[in-house]
Amino acid sequence: MGRAKEYAMAESAQGFSSRKTHVCSNCIEDYALRAYINSLGQVNSDFRCSYCEQDRQGANAIAFDDFVRHVLDGVAWAWSDVNSEALSWREGEWSTTVWDAYDLFDDESQIGFCNDGLLDDVRDSLVDRQWCQKNPYELTVHQALIVGWEEFTRVIKHESRYVFLRREDDRARWRGTEEIPPADFLDALGHAIDRCQLYTTLAAGAELCRIRTHKPNEKFDKARDIGSPPPEYAKTANRMTAAGISAFYGAFARETAVLETASGLVESAWGTLGRFRVIRDLRLVDFTKLPDTPSIFDAERRGMLPGLRFLSGFLTDFTAPIVKDGREHIEYVPTQVVAEYLRFIHHDGDGRPIDGILYKSARHDGAHACVLFVGPEGACDSGEETPDSALVLLSSETFELPFDPPKDSAVT
Predict the structure, then answer these.
(1) Cβ pair 329, 103 in contact under 8 A
(2) Which residues neighbour 402 within 8 Å (Cβ) at sequence distance 6 or greater?
(3) Which residues, other chains included, contact 360 with Cβ-Cβ below 8 Å and sequence gap of 6+?
(4) For 259-313, how does the pLDDT look when each residue is reduced to its tens digit (9 = 90+)?
(5) What angle do CA 234, 400, 213 make, to 5 degrees?
(6) Which residue, among 32, 42, 7, 12, has the nearest Cα to 293 in the 3D structure?
(7) What H or E segment, with its residue span, contains residue 213?
């Protein structure tokens, strides 16, 4: 066998055409690829970057072939070679979306080439390759989560509110598909939360505000009166708790507490604001922000990508305003069930139970609020702390709440 033929076969096996060049970390924007180059690169005359040459002396550089192999490893995590997916070709078109090297490295991969010469060489080395979505005739993981959430909300609002977790007929209907049945959705959501590490610790010493509304002539200055209501007084449904279930809804600023409370009023009222201090660390699911989107070339973090893609839309639904038109007790059901799952079933990656949920205030831009899974016994007055106590009342103030009669139905 001739040397030229051996060389061609070797290039075919590796999936790209070789180059006798070197690539430095300054030629790439993607943080994971830059880290890879820096971890393996060398700084000397033999490994000087072939693309930015004298402009970037001293930067780490690796062989072009090593760079492309690592790029293809990341590409293979997100896409499949068309030759491995049994795609059909009909009337001059593939049966699904297909990307060539020019499309993939222009928009889809988001590598961010700082040097056109390097981009051209990468494209040219892969000119015969084409890619498509993995398992192109099935939903992706994040699409399955989206569909699962939509079906979950439909079922528990309109079909099966209390025994959906035990419905074997439901699982049977979905068996053999990549879609997530409502009975399994909460665990799928919990896995996404855990994979994306949406946890935070509300440390002992943090302060929270909570308002109890009442008549003008009433006075409340005890933790038992301002904290979580006894179950018999928890008469209205809230976003995270059904009527009859007690929890501590709090804010981190006076203004936020006022705005959150006043938004639910249908007539003027007085309120007593209690300032509470957290007296033990509380573990919360943090729905206020998502972690930065990882690179597909980051082998340690790219596994969170499907969950992040789903959660960005899920959190919009989770905190969407609900019109108080008499149907709010139905519209609150999905978030109430999710909150109960987090309260009683879910644990963080270290096995710790969840004490509450941190979320963005719907009434105070840029501010956060929380619900703590703390009953009436969880808040106490100073000097009366018990093992069940999570909060201690610091002070209270009574005032008339601002009231702006809504033009239409109130939302909260």
Answers:
(1) no
(2) 258, 262
(3) 287, 288, 319, 367, 368, 369
(4) 888 876 777 789 999 999 999 999 999 999 899 999 999 999 999 999 999 999 9
(5) 5
(6) 32
(7) strand 207-214
Token match 């969950």: residue?
307
In whole angstroms, give the CA distance from residue 199 to residue 183. 24
- How many other CB atoms are there within 10 angstroms of residue 196's CB atom? 21
Q: Can you tell me the distance from the alpha carbon of 90 to that of 109, in angstroms, rounded to the nearest whole number?
A: 27
Q: Which helix H or strand E contains 312, and what residues bound it?
A: helix 305-318
pLDDT of residue 409: 38
Q: Is 333 helix (H, G, I), strand (E, B) or coil?
A: helix
Cα angle: 10, vertex 300, 352; to 5 degrees: 155
At 329, give phi and psi (nearest 5°). -65, -25
Q: 3-state class of 308 per DSSP? A: helix
Q: Region 162-190: what's the mean pLDDT? A: 78
**Distance of alpha carbon 5 from alpha carbon 249, whole angstroms:** 72
CA distance 357 to 288: 9
CA Rg value for the chain: 28
Average pLDDT score over the chain: 87
Does pLDDT of 406 surpass 50? no
Residue 245 to residues 102, 194, 301, 336, 374: CA-CA distances in angstroms? 57, 26, 38, 10, 10
The C-alpha atoms of residue 138 and residue 331 are separated, in whole angstroms, by 30
pLDDT, greater one: 398 or 138: 398
Residue 4 exposure: Cα atoms within 13 Å on the Cβ side: 0
Q: Which helix (H) or strand (E) holds 125?
A: helix 116-125
Residue 21: CB atoms within 10 A of its CB come to 16
Taking a C-beta distance cutoff of 8 angstroms, is the pair 295, 177 a contact?
no
| Nearest alpha carbon to residue 226 among 238, 213, 212, 216 | 212
Query: Residue 220: what residue type?
Result: F
- β-pairing, 379-381 vs 391-400, is parallel
Q: What is the pTM of this model?
A: 0.86
pLDDT (0 to 100) of residue 15: 85
Beta bridge partners of 89: 94
Which residue in this structure is represented by tokens 């006075």?
219
Q: Indicate the domain borders of the chain.
A: 3-133, 200-400
Q: Rounded to an integer, what distance in angstroms lies between the CA atom of residue 164 and that of residue 167?
A: 5
Q: What is the largest CA-CA distance in the chain?
A: 100
CA–CA gap between residue 353 and residue 345 (Å, rounded): 8
Cβ-count burial 26-45 (b if 16+ within 10 Å, e if not) = bbbebebbbebbeeebeeee
